[in-house]
């Protein structure tokens, strides 16, 4: 059955324009608004409410919810649905994200648009199921093998859970890459006000379908109809016969595994299609950076106590600011380079033992001091814990 | 203005719904910002459960309470467990039937929420009686906004009993204020 996004029906199902909902639920709303028509998932705390919400709501907008046997099956179903033409999504947490890694790479290699919501909890392994963490930030970038570019957003509030899920679909469709929404158990299980955007205020990007003469169509090369490294999409069933493999493939899609140039050409195209657009993709929030000498570089939940600590410091006349990475991957290295040349110190609070502090340090290149402010165990930093890092400044 | 509310009891009492109602009243039916968080054990019923709400007219950074203004307890275990970090002047509201050991050498507002709910015909609305009482005692949120939030948050066929529970709670809250 062909799905057609119906803005009126979606809003009818979502209900009132202003609501007080869970972060997890806001991811569901974002998916529905973006035109998600397939969700394959396996419930896991603290992401279960995304799956539950999709099970309740997606069929009501004429989409398909499929309960899978595990997370390997979940991501596999999502990739299949995407090749069938659906905007597709799954949601999980650390243990499930680990299981998804092989097919995450398959989605990258086969240029399959899809969205993975990861409501992070503590690890390793099953860790603390009900408690939040930011321990999978590097896994999103390095968790599957080989060279690839990750695209990952990190919401800091419930509204952003909705907005970033919409953005994630748009980025996935535009670049034909899996996109991760790296939420966490803190934000996922927080309730806040959300405003459901009107249709005129919402941007929806759809993949470009293959339209040229079927005999001339080449599936894995620069677009044949636009100036883009992203090929037009040969939806299964439309007559554009395409071989889809995770093996290194030639432009026709057939395995070409024994020659260096074939691999280099393919992987450089599927990575540079994203990095070429870094300036367009980068999405940061800047607070008090005009005069700040000490700056928190944050993302996701840890931005919340950092902002409180920053306000406490500003009230005492300290020149403290914040750079919040709304999009963590691809890493906004130019913003970090610019910042490093203007400030004395960068503090990176994270609910892990130090992950994003590493690319920060890499791009600071010694221009200023970089301090990791880690906290693990399922609790956000307290504002005064972060304030301590500012004392005397 | 920034107020922090902690509501606690045992799992299944509707502690989280109560927090949800305050948050919704403040941020949907009034113009405040609000966040609501919760923590509870793995049990579906029983065990100590806690729901926390912050209401503010400014942007809310850190989303969990650091200085509780209002403390509502609906079970002895929760009263004993979740009282430890409250201030000397935190306003405390309890149901004396559910929290029999509440003499802690400071004033406590007493609301017989469960008894009122039983009189209304269903113990299940105890939490909404407590929401009504707390609304009157705290007097931070507009009473009508909280009532709207109750109506908006309960199943349709139980709206009537919940409305009555809320109104009886309001009265009980006003009486508790007079008593103290």
Summarize the structure in words.
- The complex is a heterodimer of chains A (393) and B (180).
- Chain A is an alpha/beta fold and 393 residues long.
- Helix content of chain A is 36%, strand content 18%.
- A seven-stranded mixed β-sheet of chain A has the order 3-2-4-5-7-6-12, sandwiched between helices. A five-stranded mixed β-sheet of chain A has the order 9-11-10-13-14, sandwiched between helices.
- The mean pLDDT of chain A is 97.
- Chain B is of the alpha/beta class and 180 residues long.
- Chain B has one domain (2-179): Pyruvate-ferredoxin Oxidoreductase, domain 3 (3-Layer(aba) Sandwich), CATH 3.40.920.
- Chain B has six helices and six strands.
- The relative contact order of chain B is 0.18.
- At the A-B interface, β1, β8 and α11 of A face α1 and β2 of B.
CATH topology of the largest domain in chain A: Rossmann fold
Show unreliable segments of chain B: none
Reported CATH architecture of the largest domain in chain A = 3-Layer(aba) Sandwich
User: What would you call the structural class of chain A?
Assistant: alpha/beta
Q: Span between N and C termini of chain A?
A: 62 Å
The portion of residues forming beta strands of chain A comes to 15-25%
Which percent band covers the strand fraction of chain B? 15-25%
Question: Under CATH, the topology of chain B is which?
Answer: Pyruvate-ferredoxin Oxidoreductase, domain 3
Helical content band of chain B: 40-55%
What is the helix/strand order of chain B?
EHEEEHEEHHHH
């Amino acid at each position: 059955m062909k799905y057609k996004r119906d803005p009126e029906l979606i809003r009818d199902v979502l209900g009132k324009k202003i609501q007080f909902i869970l972060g997890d639920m806001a991811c569901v709303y974002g998916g529905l608004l973006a035109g998600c028509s397939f969700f394959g998932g396996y419930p896991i705390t603290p992401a279960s409410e995304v799956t539950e919400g999709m099970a309740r709501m997606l069929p009501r907008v004429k989409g398909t919810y499929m309960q899978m046997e595990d997370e390997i099956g979940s991501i596999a179903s999502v990739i299949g649905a995407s090749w069938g033409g659906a905007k597709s999504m799954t949601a999980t947490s650390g243990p499930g994200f680990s299981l998804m890694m092989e097919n995450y790479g398959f989605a990258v290699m086969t240029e399959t648009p899809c969205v993975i919501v990861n409501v992070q909890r503590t690890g390793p392994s099953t860790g603390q199921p009900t408690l939040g963490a930011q321990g999978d930030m590097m896994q999103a970038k390095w968790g599957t093998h080989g060279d690839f570019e990750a695209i990952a957003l990190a919401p800091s509030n419930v509204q952003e859970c909705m907005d970033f899920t919409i953005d994630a679909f748009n980025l996935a469709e535009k670049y034909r890459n899996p996109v991760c929404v790296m939420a966490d158990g803190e934000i996922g299980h927080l309730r806040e006000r959300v405003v459901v955007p009107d249709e005129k205020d919402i941007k929806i990007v759809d993949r470009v379908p293959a339209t040229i003469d079927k005999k001339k169509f080449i599936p894995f090369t620069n677009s044949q109809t636009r100036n883009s490294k992203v090929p037009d999409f040969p939806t299964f069933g439309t007559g554009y016969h395409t071989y889809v493999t995770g093996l290194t493939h030639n432009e026709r899609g057939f395995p070409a595994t024994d020659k260096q140039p074939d691999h280099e050409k393919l992987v450089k195209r599927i990575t540079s299609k994203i990095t070429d657009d870094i300036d367009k993709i980068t999405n940061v929030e800047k607070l008090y950076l005009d005069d700040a000498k000490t700056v928190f570089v944050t993302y996701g939940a840890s931005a919340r106590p950092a902002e409180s600590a920053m306000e406490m410091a500003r009230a005492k006349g300290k020149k403290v600011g914040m750079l919040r990475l709304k999009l963590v991957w691809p890493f906004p290295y130019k913003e970090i380079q610019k910042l490093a040349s203007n400030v004395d110190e960068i503090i990176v609070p994270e609910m892990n033992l130090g992950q994003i502090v590493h690319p920060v340090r890499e791009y600071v290149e010694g221009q200023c001091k970089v301090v990791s402010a880690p906290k693990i165990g399922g609790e956000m930093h307290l504002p005064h814990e972060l304030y301590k890092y500012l004392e005397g400044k | 203005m920034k107020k922090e509310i902690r509501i606690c009891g045992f799992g299944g009492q509707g502690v989280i719904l109560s927090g949800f109602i305050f948050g919704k009243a403040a941020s949907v039916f009034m113009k405040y910002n609000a966040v609501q968080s919760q923590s509870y054990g793995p049990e579906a019923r029983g065990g100590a459960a806690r729901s926390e709400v912050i209401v503010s007219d400014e942007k809310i950074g850190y989303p969990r309470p650091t200085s509780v203004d209002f403390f509502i307890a609906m079970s002895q275990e929760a009263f004993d467990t979740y009282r430890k970090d409250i201030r000397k002047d935190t306003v405390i509201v309890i149901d004396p039937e559910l929290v029999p050991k509440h003499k802690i050498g400071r004033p406590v507002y007493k609301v017989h929420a469960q008894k009122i709910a039983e009189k209304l015909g269903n113990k299940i609305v105890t939490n909404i009686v407590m929401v009504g009482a707390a609304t009157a005692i705290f007097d931070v949120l507009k009473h009508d906004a909280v009532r709207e939030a109750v109506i908006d948050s309960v199943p349709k066929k139980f709206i009537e009993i919940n409305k009555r529970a809320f109104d009886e709670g309001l009265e009980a809250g006003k009486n508790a204020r007079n008593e103290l």
